[in-house]
Each structure stands twice: as structure tokens, then as C-alpha cells.
Specification:
It is a single chain. This protein is α+β, with helices and mostly antiparallel strands. Helices cover 32% and strands 18% of the residues. The strands form two sheets. It has a three-stranded mixed sheet. It has a two-stranded antiparallel sheet with strand order 4-5. Helix 3 runs parallel beside helix 5 (127-137). The longest helix is centred in the first third of the chain and has 11 residues, at 22-32.
Amino acid sequence: MQQQLRSIMTSNVFTVNETQSIQEAAAVMSEHNIGAVPVVNNNGGIVGIITDRDITLRSTAQGEAAQTPVSQVMTAQQIVQGSPDMDVHQAAELMAQQQIRRLPVVENGQIVGMVALGDIAVDNQYDNEAEEALTSISTPSAPQK
């Protein structure tokens, strides 16, 4: 039986605008205890994603100021995303292939949810998918610049 992402995604998604500072993005992450925040433009369309790792490696480690715009450190190239109607198995496979732990869920150009590897792992019927995804995600890759 296929299960859609809409049934497991977090629909209360916190976002930041691409012009906000990395300090503001970090504050959102800290306040809501999350490790990734989708980045949106003024129309609400997703233009990137910023993670706690992005802030650490692409700003703090490089000596960037806390007021650096999110757009300078976010991941923006080919944002991997799913749709609410996507099957959970497909999402887990996509996350494994792309080595990502969090998948923005987009509908009509707007972010409507987020699915984390943990969301898939908590459902016993997806134990194998979660394990395979984590194995692929954990394979070392070259750092992005």
C-alpha cells in the first residue's frame, strides 16, 4: 500500500527570506529546534535551503559576519524537492540518491511541508527505506563550495 508524503510531512514549516541574515536563520533554527530552514523569495517560492551545517561551514568557518545574507550561504543549486502526492518509498529513494536528510515538499511553487529522514524512520513499514537512505546519505562526499 502506497503512502503519500502528505501523511508524514511536517506541515508547519518555518522559512526565512533570502535577504534575511544568517543570524536570523540561526535564531529560527534555535527557537524551533530544527536543523534546516527553507529559503523563500518575496513571492513565497522556495529558492534554497539553509542548514546549521551551511551556517557553520560556509559562514562561521570562513569568518563571515552574522549579518551576512542567507542567500550567500544557502544551498540554491537544483533544490531537491518532493510533492505531497509523492510516495514515501520514492521520497526515501530520492533522499538516498541525493544524500539529503531533509526534503522540502512543494505544491504549486509554494512550500507546504518538510520530510526528514526521521519522519520516514519512525514508521515501522519504512525501516528498510530509512536504513538504505541513511547508509547512502552517510557515504562521504566532497564538501560543496
